[in-house]
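[agent] plan:
  1. take the single chain provided in the ticket
  2. run structure prediction with default settings
  3. attach structure tokens to the ticket
  4. add a short note for the reviewer (M.T.)
[agent] executing step 1
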Amino acid sequence: MKDSGMAAFMIVFFAIIGVAVWYIASRTAWLTGIRPLWCYVGFGAALALSLTAMGTYAAKFTTGIVMHPLTVFFCYLCAVLVILLFVYLLVDLVHLVVPFGKGFFGLCVLALTLCTSVYGFIHAASPKLKKVTIALPHLEKEVTAVQLTDVHLGHFRGKRHLQKLVDMVNSAKPDVVLFTGDFIESWYNCSEEVISPMKQLKAPVFFVDGNHDTYVDADLIKEMCRKVGIRVLENEAVEYAGLQIVGLDYMVADENARDDMHAAKGKETIKSTMPKMGVSSSMPTVVLHHSPMGAKYIEKAGADLYLSGHTHGGQFFPVTLINNRLFEYNRGLYQRGNMAVYVSCGSGTFGLPLRIGTDSEVTVIHLKPKE
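[agent] step 2 finished; step 3 output follows
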């Protein structure tokens, strides 16, 4: 993103934040009778600390005995504030149509905010098995693959969450596990001990890194993966279970890419890398890349299936609506020419530890020969 574009984005972002704080503070002052100034200062400070926590939670200094709980608290607080904003808007709209007293207004706001927050937090931590069937040309026999992505181990998810995912994967009895990045999102819970449940997987695992892995230390995370028996793919192709599996490092689509400000802007792009992968014309090829960018180059290279994550499907409403405009492939199964594209919502969360309108998923992909 160019400097001018980033500046415009930041101006709009903080303008929206300012209006949101003013609106929440004004409605709260009206409901409670607290002086508006105190509400403005209180909500402004709370949101500033929450945004700071979200912006720094990948850093090493947040792993301490004081900073870890503070980081968790303020990230949860930010989620509640976002929910409170939309609850106020909803109740205000209803109040315009069907006027009711201040007491009932406040009760509705409190109940909806509390219930939605609890639901969102619990729902985010409750991954579900999602089953998808995809037909591939040149496939000689059926293959059961499980896609893991966006696990986001860190302040909110640790060894217990990973153990739950491993048990879910094993219950599907896969032939292969395909892991499309964002394994670890912060230095907290970044250790071989935390990821040790991966040793219990009963099928080979192939892994490519994601942007959050690079925010921490991609080389370290890849080395930890190797120590627990995971095969790390770094712009290379392997053959397994009748599939050619191509694993790409996290990179931009091409030299003109402006659609992903997380990937490294080096010489390595999907456009330049895919022709070197030697995509087979006699066996089905599955490409793993963390973000669903560059699909046209992967299709052009002759791949049959493109697996990715990264988008979280928007994670929570109304970002779910915005994501459909931000990403050509946002969530679920798509068809691009002769290539299938599947984008998983992932089994973890980014920033706000909640999900509303999406599921945390472990995807069981039934691959069958194409008639």
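[agent] step 4 note for reviewer: The domain at 128-369 is CATH 3.60.21.10 (Purple Acid Phosphatase; chain A, domain 2).
[agent] ticket updated
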